[in-house]
Design brief:
Radius of gyration: 29 Å
Number of strands: 12
Distance between the termini: 55 Å
Number of domains: 2
CATH superfamily of the largest domain: Reverse transcriptase/Diguanylate cyclase domain
Oligomer: single chain
Strand content: 15-25%
């Protein structure tokens, strides 16, 4: 684990660095408080820090206050190194945001124990953040396809519509439906049907723009949200998706299965602003028209713009 040592005394700093290196830490050194603060503000900064209370530039206690003021999720565990023995001074240090302190002179065995405690705190925090990310992904994504789920894609659409109204830009949506999907399930079984859903989703993800969003709307239907995308661009993108999906059969446990999709496009923007429900309803109407007109095609709602 990476650790910062901020100490202005070169001899003492070198001694600590040598000991920490022997214990297996990756040591980053700072010769004054300003350098220490810059390091702790940088990308991939150490999450453990030993700060001398009295240093040129920013003092250790000042660094604590500034870090705690701006700190978000990635916590830095701080041990203050001090010659102060007065209880009130130590209380000030802890209230400023230090997690622990060591009074000079100290035994290195004591430092090792305190660092071990700090390391456990940092590791626990990483585990909690990772667990939270997993829970968030499960709450916002479809477990089968990995796409955004129904609620999340509609929430993103509402946010993009609010932004588009404020900035005066277009938002387009595409409703996508796998043609004759019920026949796939009835003929080959639901395991093959799931494979078709997953691979179709992966293909759509492969050609989306970085700022587009794709969600599983329900069953074999998908909703694509295209920020700052006019009707003509959205229709062209929909056609690109259609062509890409049907260009190759899907490899399933039951062999290669040809798949086509139908798509409906609707746009809200400069001339007419629609809410999320109205925009999805318009795209859905275009999708049904694509199915009525023979499937494997793109239809656009011309009066939705």
């Amino acid at each position: 684990m990476k650790i910062l040592v901020a100490e202005d005394d070169p001899a003492f700093r070198g001694l600590i660095e040598e000991i920490l290196d022997r214990w297996g830490y990756e040591v980053v050194v700072a010769r004054d408080g300003n350098e220490a603060y810059r390091i702790l503000q940088s990308e991939h900064a150490p999450k453990l820090a030993i700060l001398d209370w009295k240093m040129p530039g920013m003092e250790g206690i000042e660094i604590c206050r500034e870090l705690r003021k701006n700190e978000k999720e990635n916590y830095t565990y701080i041990i203050l190194l001090t010659a102060q023995n007065r209880e009130d001074e130590l209380v000030i240090g802890m209230e400023a945001g230090a997690d622990d302190y060591i009074t000079k002179p100290f035994k290195f065995s004591e430092l090792r124990v305190r660092l071990r405690a700090g390391r456990r705190i940092i590791e626990l925090q990483h585990e909690l953040l990772a667990a939270r990310e997993i829970l968030h992904a499960r709450a916002t994504h479809d477990s089968l396809t990995g796409l955004l789920n129904h609620e999340e894609i509609l929430d993103i659409l509402d946010k993009e519509l609010a932004r588009s109204e404020r900035d005066g830009v277009c938002v387009s949506v595409i409703m996508v439906d796998i043609d004759h999907f019920k026949k796939v399930n009835d003929t080959y079984g639901h395991i093959v049907g799931d494979t078709v859903l997953r691979i179709t989703s992966q293909k759509m993800i492969a050609i989306e723009r970085a700022y587009d969003s794709i969600g599983r709307y329900g069953g074999e239907e998908f909703l694509i949200v295209l920020p700052e995308c006019c009707m003509e661009c959205a229709a062209a993108f929909a056609e690109r998706i259609r062509s890409f999906i049907c260009s190759e059969s899907i490899d399933t446990p039951e062999g290669m299965i040809p798949i086509t999709i139908s798509l409906g496009v609707a746009t809200s923007g400069k001339n007419r602003t629609l809410d999320g429900n109205s925009l999805v309803k318009a795209a859905d109407a275009a999708l049904y028209r694509a199915k009525e007109n023979g499937r494997n095609r793109v239809e656009v709602v011309a009066d939705a713009v």
